[in-house]
Amino acid sequence: MNRLTTSKGGFDLARFPEHPRDPFRAWDAADEYLLRQLEGIDGAEPVDLSGAVVVVGDRWGALTTVLAGHRPVQITDSYLAQRATLANLARNGDDPDTVRLLSARDTPPERTDVLLVRVPKSLALLEDQLHRLAPAVHAGTVVIGTGMVKEIHTSTLKLFERIIGPTRTSLAVKKARLIFCPPDPALARTPSPWPHRYDLPEGIGAVSGRTVVNHAGIFCAERLDIGTRFFLNHLPERSGRDRIVDLGCGNGVVGTSAALANPEATVTFIDESYLAVASAEATFRANLGTDAVADFLVGDGMAGVPPGSVDLVLNNPPFHSHQATTDATARTMFHGARTALRQGGELWVVGNRHLGYHTQLRRTFGNCTTVAGDPKFVVLRAVKR
């Protein structure tokens, strides 16, 4: 936990789930820069926050917590960001009911007077967010984006300009920058191009030639990534009434492949991204029909799965948290999988060879075997004894 000091006072903030040895803070210089801008520090005019305030993409709830007194609406695609926000509000003595938490799938507010956008890593997610929010802004809406310099590109600014209005940026401070974008009510906007659909290539097992649906912000939305392709070619061949989990499901192509290969199995798709789970459900339904049985869960890894209830977990763990490289998510997934698996149940993992997941799997399960490998990727198998 760390303390963010602002003109409104100090705020104790942490990421979620909170780890005592987590080296990363729940905010960065971009959040600080935006808060100073709102408060009128550094020569800026204070922003009137008495109207409807919407905070988009607040990564760990720092902005929402500091602005809680203005009863903001927070919009995020991250379940973990929502949990972090609730925990940080409670940590600082704020009533969670003062903040309205919406997912990226929920209908945005009808009117927005102040729109604060934390620029996401995904340009596609930003595009979809701006399209969804544009009808709620008006000529008097204050629109400010924020991000680190390495996160804001010419393409970022062009999106704001094309969807909201004329755009300019601030000077960089501590490697952070602000985006100012007064709305143009007369701007002609095209509909959001998301979600995307594409057909998979041949030669990748049960999902060869099948359709994939990707909502905005999902990894490799335009094509099948090479790591998943490698995994699909080496999935376990099983039959019977298995309970299978596609953990960190993304667009659901791995779990859909398992369901197609074993029609008796029941697959649960889990991700902390609301748009990922929506993509997984759309992909599954497109290939197995509306009556096929599956579960779709937005949550913190395997936390919502009963212990000892799963036969097989399929996992392609992320190794980035926003701009930071970390194996914390993978470790959490491996431990959660072990708890959820029955005796004899298996966890199959694909990852970049250099990440060394075999070491963590041996610590967690007491065993790990290599199923397949090439110069870049490796598929690993661990069994709950």
Provide a short characterization of the protein structure.
The chain is of the alpha/beta class. It has helices spanning 29-39, 62-66, 79-91, 123-133, 154-163, 226-232, 253-261, 274-288, 328-340, 357-365, and strands spanning 2-6, 9-13, 53-56, 73-76, 100-103, 114-118, 142-148, 168-169, 176-180, 196-199, 211-214, 243-247, 266-271, 294-298, 310-315, 320-321, 324-325, 341-352, 369-373, 377-383.
Task: Please specify the SSE layout and strand pairing.
Layout: E1 2-6, E2 9-13, H1 29-39, E3 53-56, H2 62-66, E4 73-76, H3 79-91, E5 100-103, E6 114-118, H4 123-133, E7 142-148, H5 154-163, E8 168-169, E9 176-180, E10 196-199, E11 211-214, H6 226-232, E12 243-247, H7 253-261, E13 266-271, H8 274-288, E14 294-298, E15 310-315, E16 320-321, E17 324-325, H9 328-340, E18 341-352, H10 357-365, E19 369-373, E20 377-383
Parallel strand pairs: 3-4, 3-6, 4-5, 6-7, 12-13, 12-15, 13-14, 15-18
Antiparallel strand pairs: 1-2, 7-9, 8-9, 10-11, 16-17, 18-20, 19-20
Descriptive terms for the model:
7-stranded mixed β-sheet; 10 helices; 27% helix; 385 residues; alpha/beta
